[in-house]
Amino acid sequence: MITLFGQSYRWSDPEVLVPGGAVLLLLLVLGLILRAVLRGSRASEPLLHELGWLSQQVQALSNGQQQLAGGLTHVSEAQAQAQKALLGHLEARLAEVSRAMGEHLQGSSTRTAHSLGELRQRLETIDKAQANIEKLSGNVLSLQDILSNKQLRGAFGEIQLHDIVQKAMPADAYTMQATLSNGRRADCLIHLPNPPGPIVIDAKFPLEAYEALQRANGAREQAEAQQFFRTSVRNHLRAIAEKYILEGETADGALMFLPSEAVYAELHSNFADLVREGFAARVWIVSPTTCMATLNTMRAILKDARMRAQAGAIRKELSALYADVDRLTERVGNLDRHFGQAAKDIEEIKTSAEKAGKRARRLDNFDFEELAQPEAPPPLVPKVAE
Question: Is 50 helix (H, G, I), strand (E, B) or coil?
């Protein structure tokens, strides 16, 4: 590499080879001159001629070198300007790219912050849902504990039955945990009139047999579970009929309340013989839905019986009401007659007032001077009764 006029060139560039060749040519000419001087004076004249020509060539080469140097300077300046313009363009482009990247990063940051906010809200919602699920799981476990214990399961059925009865019947139409004459305690006793009489509702149900039926796998286990379920329900139906159907005290039937629609559906779908046995024993199986419908029917019966019991009092009140209406009609007639007489009296008063007014006007226009002259007595005019 070689540096000329502040610009770097390689040895193989034309800008270096041309001046170098000129220098080598000049050195060659000087060598020839020295050689000619050593040979003698005879060749001096042609040599001088050659030297003159070489001098011209050297001058021409010097001029070309100067022109080349000027061109190189111009090229260097143009290159410097181009480089400066390129640097300015690059700086402007870099500034634009930096601005665009800044805006993009700012927008991305805003969107990211918004997305993180939404994500945090969703996570909070998920946390709340998780807490509710955990709470519900705890409630389900508690319900399983209740249903797995026979006494607690009976209390659960009684609570559900009480809630249904409380919504369907008046407060004085039922008794919870009523004790019968045989010492048995009924879960609920509906006070219906005779007939049919008070009816008992039992809230116990054979859940163990139903759960065994649901867990059964294979034909053998299913057969055993069905037999166990059939035996449990049949024994429960017989126990209700023996404990809660008392002649002369209760209705000729009772209700077995199942607080599970699934057990009720299983009975009517696959154990119709048990339902028929319940009919034969006068024990009717009800679910929460059918129990509500039955209680509404009982309420209508109770309302009709109470209406019949109050029929005498209602007729008495109607008679008194009819007498009151008659008296009111008579008094209205008397008042109408009084109003008619008062209207007639007012008309007569108006007539008398008009006559008195006419007489007062005649007296006001009467000429008293005519009274001083004697005059014939006026003719007698018969008096008109007023």
Answer: helix
| Cβ-contact 254, 245 below 8 angstroms | yes
Cα separation, 338 vs 223, whole angstroms: 95
Q: How far is CA 107 from CA 93, 103, 104, 111, in A?
A: 21, 6, 5, 6
Which of the 8 DSSP states describes residue 6? T
Q: Average pLDDT by consecutive 10-residue portion of the chain (386 residues)?
A: 57 58 65 61 58 71 69 72 79 80 78 80 80 63 49 65 88 88 89 86 80 84 88 90 88 87 86 89 90 89 80 77 82 82 82 78 61 52 46
pTM (global) more than 0.85? no
Nearest CA to 173 out of 190, 197, 156 is that of: 190
Give domain limits for the chain. Answer: 2-119, 150-314
pLDDT at 146: 47
Of 272, 269, 267, 295, whose CA–CA distance to 188 is shortest?
295
Element (H, E) at 174: strand 174-179
Contacts with 7 (C-beta within 8 Å, 6 or more apart), sequence order:
72, 75, 76
Model pLDDT, residue 128: 80
d(CA 323, CA 313) in angstroms, rounded, equals 16
Residue among 227, 238, 229, 231 nearest 278 (CA) = 238
Whole-number CA gyration radius for the chain: 67
What is the C-alpha to C-alpha distance for residues 173 and 14, in angstroms, rounded to an integer? 126
Residue type, 95: A
